[in-house]
Structures are given as structure tokens and as C-alpha cells.
Amino acid sequence: MKREHDELAEDTADLTQVSSEGSRLKGPDAYRNKTILAPMGTLPMRLLALEYGADIVYSEEIIAKKFAKCLRTVDEKSKRVEFVLPDHKKKNVEAGCMLPGFFKDDAIHLSLDDALRAAPLAFRSDNEHNIYLEDEEDEEKANPPETTTSASQGATKRDVLQRAQHSSKTCVTYDQVSPASPLHALYNWDPLLDFLAAVLSKEQLHRTADRLGALNVHIYHQGDELGWHFDRGEFAVSLLLQSSAESGASDEGGGHFEYAPHLRSADDQNYVDVIGVLDAAEEDKSTTSTGGRIRRLNITPGALVFFCGRHSLHRVTKVTGDTPRVMAILSFETRPGVELNDYTRLKFFGRTG
């Protein structure tokens, strides 16, 4: 048995290498007839293995031995995605990474059905907020005018805080996601932490400790949107379950993800350019404004997206069609025990516990 096991490992040792042929990988098609290294018996990895056309799934006892090859596969794939991962070793940095076709159709449908069943009991939010997702008094205490600078003159923090944003959606909180959902299983699958840490170049990741916000499903019905904002966390991981857009390049259906990469930094809040992006968006100049500062990411159902939103302003445009946009948000942190503040919980979940 051991000999057969070793021969299998040797025969397939290089199958996780990604071919350099072609200008871009095409989702699952790039992995046809490849071997996905995965533990047997875990639902998320069975789904992933099937999605990528795997013909063999390894058992847990050798996954650690072969995991380095998986990481090389991830690295090769991330170099060819539409959205390039920020890394000090790479040039032309954007604000994240997208892996199309990450979730199998069956897993998408099961997770979507679970979320829609929970929706009638979920919190419906419709409110205004500032781009920092902070109470204004708390934001001013955290970033007083005398300790922040801007790249140019003509705008202040007060100007930015006065530009109220509108957000409306239904939010299924972590305690409302069924443990039987593939989405719940994926979020609580420990090797996912190693996978994401490798992609995001982090030494270690932890699931967010927040009892409501660790895993959410956002449902945007007709007229709903997510206003411009900076994330409080360094990065966000999301998985699209259903798109409201009728086609990737069209405005039909709405619900598009738009962002302005690297608009601020820890040393410069850059109020002038923030105001410029907000003005351009109000004038509906998303594709031509400020030298193309506002970008649009065309996300397809099943795509896993990593986005670094602490310094990149972003939003979801208003849904205009009958099909809801349904997006799962998986939250992770570089340190354990991180929770949301009560302001954010009340604004988006309607409760603090």
C-alpha cells in the first residue's frame, strides 16, 4: 500500500505546475486533467477538486509534503489574473487579486439557496455613512487635522466627512449562515488560511473573531447599492454567488464593483483626490475620470476576490435589474481576536450582538 502510495505521489508530483503557454489562464479550463492536492473527505476541497477538473485527490497524509507545489500553482495563476496582487516585488500594483471559477456551480447554488432562505430574517439596512465607516467624532479623534497631510491644497477632512454616502442591502450575518452551507464549510476550513496567507503574502492569518461580521452574505435588490468607503481592515476576501449584471461589460443590471486604487496612505489621507473621485462618480464619469482613476472589476459567479480596501476607495453601484446581487464576505485578520466596533455593527447588522 505504501509503495503504491509513493508511486502515485511520484507519478503526479509535477502535475500542479501551470503551463506558461497562452496569455492568460482561463479559469477551470487551465486545470483540466491536473491533480489537485487536497484532503479526502472535506466538502470544500471535494468541490474545488471537481471544479478544477482533478482526476486524483490526495489523502491528508501527504498534502503537507506537496503543498509547496500548490503554492507555486497559486503564484502562477495570480500573475495572470485581471487584478494584480499588491506585492513589493511586483510592479504595476493594483489593489487585489481575482481567481475566477473558484467555487463549483453546485457549491454556488447550495450557498445561494441557503442565503436566500435566511434573507427574510436578515437585517435590512438603508442609511447614510461617511467613507471611513466611522462615527464622525471618533474619526476626528483618530485622525485630527493637525496630524494628517494632503498631497495638494484645497480640501480638508471636514469636506470629505460631509460627503455622505448611501448604502442599502440585506445582510445575512455569520450566526445566520447555516453550518450545512458549503460557504460555511469553506470559511471554517483550516487549510484555507494557509492558502490565503500565501496569496496575500502574510505570515499567518486568523478568522475574524466577530460573532456577526466574520462571514456575511450581502444581498442587493433593485435600488440597493454600497456607497463609497475605505475598509477598516487591511484586506477583504469575497466570493460572488450571483451577479445582477446582465453581461460583464454592460451597465445593464447594475451592481458593479468599482474602486480607486491606492487613493490614500498611512501618511497622507489625500483629501483632494478623494473629493475628485467622489465628484467624478457623481458626474457618471467612472471610465474617463481623473486619468482613469476609477476602475471597474467584472466579477463572475464563483470568483474568489482578494481586495485591499483600507487605502483604496470602493463601492458597488446601484442594482437596476430584477436579479439580486449576492456576495459572500469572508473576513480574516493578521492577528487573532479582532472584532468590529459597535458603530459598524449597528449600521450594517442592526445589532451589536
TrEMBL record:
<dbReference type="InterPro" id="IPR013785">
    <property type="entry name" value="Aldolase_TIM"/>
</dbReference>
<dbReference type="GO" id="GO:0005737">
    <property type="term" value="C:cytoplasm"/>
</dbReference>
<feature type="domain" description="Fe2OG dioxygenase">
    <location>
        <begin position="208"/>
        <end position="336"/>
    </location>
</feature>
<dbReference type="GO" id="GO:0046872">
    <property type="term" value="F:metal ion binding"/>
</dbReference>
<dbReference type="InterPro" id="IPR056470">
    <property type="entry name" value="BesD/HalB-like"/>
</dbReference>
<comment type="similarity">
    <text>Belongs to the iron/ascorbate-dependent oxidoreductase family.</text>
</comment>
<keyword id="KW-0408">Iron</keyword>
<protein>
    <submittedName>
        <fullName>Oxidoreductase, 2OG-Fe(II) oxygenase family protein</fullName>
    </submittedName>
</protein>
<feature type="region of interest" description="Disordered">
    <location>
        <begin position="134"/>
        <end position="162"/>
    </location>
</feature>
<dbReference type="InterPro" id="IPR052582">
    <property type="entry name" value="tRNA-DUS-like"/>
</dbReference>
<dbReference type="Pfam" id="PF23169">
    <property type="entry name" value="HalD"/>
</dbReference>
<feature type="region of interest" description="Disordered">
    <location>
        <begin position="1"/>
        <end position="27"/>
    </location>
</feature>
<dbReference type="InterPro" id="IPR005123">
    <property type="entry name" value="Oxoglu/Fe-dep_dioxygenase_dom"/>
</dbReference>
<dbReference type="GO" id="GO:0017150">
    <property type="term" value="F:tRNA dihydrouridine synthase activity"/>
</dbReference>
<keyword id="KW-0479">Metal-binding</keyword>
<feature type="compositionally biased region" description="Polar residues">
    <location>
        <begin position="145"/>
        <end position="155"/>
    </location>
</feature>
<keyword id="KW-0560">Oxidoreductase</keyword>
